[in-house]
């Protein structure tokens, strides 16, 4: 899946299946968000079956970059199992979650 510009100030990434592909997409998103791209970001987990530590690390890096730019990061379509990973690791309070893409877009507008 490719990173999409939904608006001039909103990037959207639907994560692919497979941890390696997720890692690649998140690293690319981190590069874009760390540059001059002053955008909010929605990351869609609809296809994610499992989340590994390297991908959580990339999400934390992305969150920090966006926070420094006073921009928002919204995670949507997060399965109960994946959300439990965030909760057990103590990271659920660090991220904003939305039920789906539409509600995530309302959160950033």
What layout of secondary structure does this protein have?
Elements: E1 4-7, E2 10-14, H1 19-34, E3 40-44, H2 53-68, E4 73-76, H3 80-88, E5 96-98, H4 101-108
Parallel strand pairs: 2-3, 3-4, 4-5
Antiparallel strand pairs: 1-2
Helix pairs in contact: 1-2
What does this entry look like structurally?
By secondary structure, the chain is of the alpha/beta class. It has a five-stranded mixed β-sheet, sandwiched between helices. The chain is globular and about 30 Å long. The mean pLDDT is 92.
- Cα-atom radius of gyration: 12 Å
What is the CATH T-level topology? Transcription Regulator spoIIAA
Quote the average pLDDT. 92
End-to-end C-alpha gap: 24 Å
Strand content: 15-25%
- Spatial arrangement of strands, main beta sheet: 1-2-3-4-5
Can you tell me the CATH architecture? 2-Layer Sandwich
Order of helices and strands: EEHEHEHEH
State the oligomer: single chain
Query: What is the domain tally?
Result: 1
The level-1 CATH class: Alpha Beta
């Amino acid at each position: 899946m490719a990173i999409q510009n939904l608006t001039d100030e909103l990037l959207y990434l639907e994560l692919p299946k497979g941890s390696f592909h997720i890692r690649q997409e998140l690293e690319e998103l981190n590069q874009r968000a760390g540059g001059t791209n002053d955008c909010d970001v929605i990351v869609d987990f609809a296809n994610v079956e499992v989340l590994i530590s390297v991908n959580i690390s990339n999400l934390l890096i992305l969150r920090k970059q966006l926070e420094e730019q006073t921009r928002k990061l919204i995670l949507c379509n997060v399965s109960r199992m994946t959300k439990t990973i965030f909760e057990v690791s103590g990271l659920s309070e660090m991220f904003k979650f939305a039920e789906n893409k539409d509600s995530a877009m309302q959160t950033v507008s």
